[in-house]
Hints:
This protein is an all-alpha fold. The chain is built from 11 helices and no strands. The chain has helices spanning 2-13, 20-32, 36-49, 54-66, 70-83, 88-100, 104-117, 122-134, 138-151, 156-168, 172-184.
Amino acid sequence: MKKLLLLLVVVSLSGFGQTAQDYFNKGLAKCELQDYTGAISDFNNAIQLNPDNANAYQNRGLAKDKLQDYTGAMSDFNSAIQLKPDDANAYNNRGLSKFSLEDFKGAITDCNKAIQLNPNNSNYYYNRAIAKCSLEDYNGSISDFNKAIQLNPDDAVYFHGRGTAKYYLKDYNGACLDWSKAGELAYNNIKDYCK
């Protein structure tokens, strides 16, 4: 009985003494395991212990986004941006949540800011291209896909996206060329669309 009582005391005390960084690291590990609910709980604890940690807000936002809580994710990205206004990833991530809520203009605005802060990240151009495509701005979309491809010419997704935008502009030959290139880069048998 004495050993059981001691064990209960030790187990109950094991949560004490954990730092904000400990909880943050546990949250990251749970995200890797796709335990987003558990990760959010750990990020909550990290934020409670250190409310000025922009990375904790951003990662909690990413976990919420994975659970399709896009409004909650945007709130966390807002907090991260308030704490660290020069973090391009926070703007990009908030833009992705806005995109999921079909706020395509808001997504473009956030991608613009991310690109302004870090013009060498091909994903920011890709995300803006997708938002422009959703607004049927296919020429603007192609321009962004071109930049993404210039920065990262080995990403099949960029060629596939550009091909789709060209297809909507009735540039079927250009679409097939891009889709063929995506296929060469191992994008799911896309070449079949052009037969």
